[in-house]
Amino acid sequence: MLEYDIVIVGGGLAGSRAAVEIARTDNRLKVALVSKVHPIRSHSVAAQGGIAAALQNVDPQDNWLTHAFDTVKGADYLADQDAVAVLTQQAPQVIIDLEHMGVLFSRLPDGRIAQRPFGGHTHQRTCYAADKTGHAILHELVSRLFQYKVPIFEEWYVLELIVEEGEARGLVMFHIPTGRIEVVRAKAILFATGGYGRVFNTTSNDYASTGDGLCLAAMAGLPLQDMEFVQFHPTGLYPVGVLISEAVRGEGAHLINDAGERFMAGYAPSRMELAPRDITSRAIATEIREGRGVGGGRYVHLDLRHMGKEKILERVPFAHDEALRHLGIDVVYEPMPVRPTVHYSMGGIPTTVDCQALAAHGQVMEGFFAAGECSCVSVHGANRLGSNSLLECVVYGARAGASLARYVQDRRLPHVDEARHRRVAEQGIQNLLDQPGSLRIDALRREFQDTLTDHCSIFRDEQILKTGLEKIQQLKARYGDIRLDDKGKLYNTEITEAFELRSLITVGEIIVASALERRESRGAHSRSDYPERNDGEYLKHTLAYREGDALRIDYRPVDLSLQAVDPERFTPQARKY
């Protein structure tokens, strides 16, 4: 059995930053990082637009409190204000720390870090590295993992979070190349496993974003929080769905309908193309539904031509390359077709501001922490502002690392029955290989993803959600009928796909069930049968518990502590742009 003080699951920004912080805090601690892909292939590397901080390099009037207000308003007042205060107060120092690590941020002419405008932010506060910001940050963090000699278990898939007697004690994991099973015990475990965009059929997320960490937490009895809030990014390249960064609109691109109109004037006149993502996505979807998509089709145009070739190639080269590579469109001369695509998970494993996971409202789970997109601390509430996700990963990744380093100091390694956990895992895999099913994994996965997309998309109502939930339960019942053609264990990707499908089904059912119970419209959750926000009944976080084959929905209050600092701004009010 493997033994570590701390095991981190996930090699993206949050997980890597946590590992770096632990090494900096106490290099005597025995830390390991587990990832089903090489850390450099984590989805964080795909983040393009930037990372927000009130550095005041471009706008000296900016400050952390204004950043906090923009974040809370953007979240439709569902964000926990104590967590937002931590996020925005620590943001400037985080940027300086990243710069000192060697992150190559784009610069102003005088050498200071450049900052661009972003949707929902009232000041130019988004620091960036052209339109490859996640790539620039993750490479530096992973190089630090090598510097600090952190053991990396790459291409290991975690099968179980071991929770016994109310504490997390370890993991069971499966080596994808060889089929080997290992049991790990640890004084503390951090999940930094990312999001679950692959629950839907069209997403900007990579193929690894299957919600595995959230599934394992739910199976271990923890609640998942605010899962109904799924962000659609306004500009997915049509029809392939890959992301066209908000940085493109931040640099001045226009959204155009079939009539050639900048239609955002009718939805968010003060912010236009830089309205928050939920508002912009609904605007595009409405234009398409009402027949104003280009040529009557299912997309609108994102027009960069007026920006000029030099600016396009300097500021947003990746967006230029993506349109050319996928569609043969040179955006210097032609507009590109876009429509909303599933992008980000506001919901996740509920945590304290020190990243310790909550087993119930007010009750932490000993030994278990979460950070990054798989967590819900909650700094994004009902809708995340662009460039706050990288910030959350770095701020709360570092915070998780510091918390873990303190937490394990006087903690003993827990008891784990290695033989029993190994036997159960090996038998589970063998059962998968042996089951005489008739259904291919891909067929069931596609049907499931189509169901989520059809029944829990940008616009929802009770009947659509109820029907979707019934279909999900029918599809879940068919999971036992999947067939694996590859009967070996060496690099058998069908085994991994079968477990990922389990994750998708578990997470997807919770998303739809949570959406059905929230009878209001707030942020990314838009109910046509309940079109108004209802603070009286729903200014609270959803907690969804998996209990056997059933789900139980509960709620917990939202932290409103910044009201005491600035009641005029932080008291919930109508959200207009």
UniProtKB/TrEMBL annotation:
Primary enzyme class: oxidoreductase
One example GO MF annotation: steroid dehydrogenase activity, acting on the CH-CH group of donors
CC terms in the record's Gene Ontology section: plasma membrane
Domain Fumarate reductase/succinate dehydrogenase flavoprotein-like C-terminal: 445-577
EC number: 1.3.5.1
Bilayer topology annotation: Peripheral membrane protein
Active site: 277
Subcellular location, record wording: Membrane
Keywords for this protein: Electron transport, FAD, Flavoprotein, Membrane, Oxidoreductase, Transport
InterPro entries listed in its UniProt record: FAD-dep_OxRdtase_2_FAD-bd, FAD/NAD-bd_sf, FRD_SDH_FAD_BS, Fum_R/Succ_DH_flav-like_C_sf, Fum_Rdtase/Succ_DH_flav-like_C, SdhA/FrdA/AprA, Succ_DH/fumarate_Rdtase_cat_sf, Succ_Dhase_FrdA_Gneg
Pathway info: Carbohydrate metabolism; tricarboxylic acid cycle; fumarate from succinate (bacterial route): step 1/1
FAD-dependent oxidoreductase 2 FAD-binding domain segment(s): 5-390
GO annotation, biological process: anaerobic respiration; electron transport chain
Cofactor annotation: FAD
Pfam families named in the record: FAD_binding_2, Succ_DH_flav_C
Catalytic activity field: a quinone + succinate = fumarate + a quinol
Family to which this protein belongs: Belongs to the FAD-dependent oxidoreductase 2 family. FRD/SDH subfamily.
Identification of the protein by name: Succinate dehydrogenase flavoprotein subunit
Record organism: Gloeobacter violaceus (strain ATCC 29082 / PCC 7421)
